[in-house]
Structures are given as C-alpha cells and as structure tokens.
Inverse folding.
C-alpha cells in the first residue's frame, strides 16, 4: 500500500446545517435510523451528534444562521431492513418528514423522495422485505447480447492505438452468429454501464488436420472500452470465462492468442498467469492458463 494511501483522510462526520434547533433535527434522524443522540445533547444546544455504532461517519447537526436555498447536492438513500418501504415511509412521515416525489414502480422497484423537517432530501428505496426484482444485482457482471443492448455493444471501442490487437465487436458478433455451440459472446457491465465485451470459445481444435491437437477452450476476443481500462474489468472477464470453462468441465486450461506489439495485451495476460506455450496460431502467440492456477 502506498504511503499516499495512508495519508488520505477518512470521513469523520456528515454535517447537517440547521436553522431550527439541531436537537430536534438530530432527534428525527436518531429515531428514523434507530441510533441514539449523544448522552449530553439537549434541546437548545448549538450541536447534536449521532454516532455510528459500526464506526462509520457520525451525523452532526449544527445551528447556522442562513437558511436552505436549493436542493442539496448530497443526500441519503435509505434501504429499509425490518420493514417494507411503505412502512418506512409512513414511519418517516409520522416522525415529521414529508413525501416530495413518489417514484415507486409497479414492478416493485423505484423509490420515494422525502424531506426531513428541515427540508433535507432523502430517499427510501425498496427494502429487503419488499417483493419485486432484486435491486442488489451484482454491479460487475456478464450479460447476454440482446436486442436492447446490441447497439451499445457495437458502439463499444477500444483505444484507437489498440484497434490492431482486437476485432471490432460487430465482427465478433457476426463470427459468433453461425457458431452458437462454440462461441460465447458476453457484455461486461458495471452497474448500468457497458464497459467491455468478451467472447469465449469452447472445444475448438486449432489444427483439425493434426490428430494430436486437442480441443481447446478460452478467450477469443476481449475488448475493454477506451476510458474504462486498468480498472479490473479485463481481469474480471478472464475470470468469468475461466469459471464458464470450469463449469463445462471439458479441459483444464484456458487458451488465448495475442499479437505482440507496443500497447498490446501481452503484459496483461502474462500478469494474470498465462504462459506462452511456444506455439503460434497464424501470427499470434498462444498462451495458456491452468484452470486451477
Ligand atoms: C488488454 C485489456 C483487455 C486489459 O483490460 P483492463 O480492463 O485494462 O485490465 P485490468 O484492469 O483488469 O488489469 C488487470 C491487470 O493487468 C494489468 N495490465 C492491464 N493492461 C496492462 C498493460 N497494457 N501493461 C501492463 N499491465 C497491464 C493491470 O495493471 C492489472 O494489474 P494489477 O491487478 O496488478 O493491478 C484492455 O487493455 C483492452 O481491451 N485492450 C485492447 C484490446 C486487446 O488487446 N484485447 C486483447 C485481445 S487478445
């Protein structure tokens, strides 16, 4: 860990400005979050404090002369735990909050936008007890190519100087189209954002004329978008392909081929543990990684 990292600050408190009594606003949040106010806080004090028993930032309420003039640029999104979203919204209203926008969706998703007694915005999301689609979808995940995302997939571009190392997504999808059993194209999403494309191959013989050539599985294409590289997405895609190969159980190796050159993927693959087999596939280096390495 770098020295700079140790010097970075932690978040000690999240501070609310109050024109009314900080104790009253503190009490609202204390009851809503089920966390006590500090023992020595009393009505009329210039400050009130709620500590986080788990060691997270404290909530500090301080009296200021100026009023609130516009929507806050930072707010809490609350996720109900032991209650439904409806129950949590009703509870907040009973404590003095008001609803400003109801953005609940018929499928159970969405949220309710509210204001605390001083007008600070907060949202109540779908809770653990609410029915509906999972909102806890894995942020980093592979998705299939669908009519809804194929346009974005085709628009995904690597850095211009990397284009010689990988085919465009459209070409990969065209090559996958007649090979549904051996090509496995997938999109890499981080939350709602499309950050990459990976295409695996399964059970392909590189040299069908050679009876000793075993079927191989591995990475056919890997394109992490310009501006999204060096954030772990490439590693994630390789590991996802490795998991899929393991699941299919036909080989103990992940194979990949790459072209050498400045800006090419060789350091990436070698860094992940791939080793050169000494073979070439056309003008490409062949590399392999043990499934259990
Ligand atoms: C190669 C590529 C897929 C890497 O994706 P990425 O998302 O940037 O890689 P990650 O962030 O997951 O990096 C994983 C590790 O590899 C290292 N790495 C990535 N690219 C590297 C490079 N060019 N040189 C040295 N190390 C590199 C990272 O530093 C990281 O190491 P760490 O975990 O020790 O920090 C991406 O650069 C890309 O799409 N390139 C253009 C297309 C291409 O060449 N595809 C491969 C065709 S075979």
């Amino acid at each position: 860990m770098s020295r700079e990292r140790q010097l970075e600050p932690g978040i000690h408190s999240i501070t609310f400005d109050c024109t009314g009594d900080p104790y009253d606003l503190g009490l609202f949040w204390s009851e809503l979050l089920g966390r006590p106010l500090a023992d020595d806080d009393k009505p009329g004090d210039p400050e009130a404090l709620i500590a986080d028993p788990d060691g997270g930032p404290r909530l500090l309420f301080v009296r200021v002369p100026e009023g609130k003039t516009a929507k806050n640029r930072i707010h809490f999104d609350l996720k109900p735990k032991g209650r439904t979203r409806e129950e949590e919204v009703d509870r907040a209203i009973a404590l003095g909050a008001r609803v400003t926008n109801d953005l609940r969706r018929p499928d159970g998703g969405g949220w309710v936008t509210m204001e605390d007694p001083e007008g600070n915005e907060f949202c109540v999301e779908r809770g653990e007890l609410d029915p509906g689609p999972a909102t806890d979808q894995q942020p980093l995940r592979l998705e299939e190519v669908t009519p809804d995302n194929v346009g974005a997939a085709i628009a995904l571009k690597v850095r211009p100087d990397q284009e010689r190392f990988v085919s465009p997504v459209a070409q990969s999808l065209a090559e996958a189209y007649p090979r549904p059993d051996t090509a496995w194209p997938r999109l890499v999403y981080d939350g709602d954002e499309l950050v990459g494309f990976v295409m695996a191959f399964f059970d392909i013989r590189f040299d069908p004329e050679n009876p000793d050539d075993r079927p191989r599985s591995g990475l056919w294409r890997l394109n992490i978008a310009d501006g999204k590289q060096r954030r772990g997405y490439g590693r994630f895609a390789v590991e996802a392909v490795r998991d899929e190969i393991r699941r299919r159980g036909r080989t103990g190796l992940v194979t990949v081929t790459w072209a050498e050159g400045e800006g090419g993927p060789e350091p990436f693959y070698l860094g992940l543990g791939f080793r050169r087999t000494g073979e070439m596939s056309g003008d490409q280096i062949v590399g392999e990684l043990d499934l259990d390495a």
Q: What stands out?
A: Helices lie at 3-7, 22-33, 85-95, 150-155, 169-176, 233-248, 266-271. The mean pLDDT is 92.
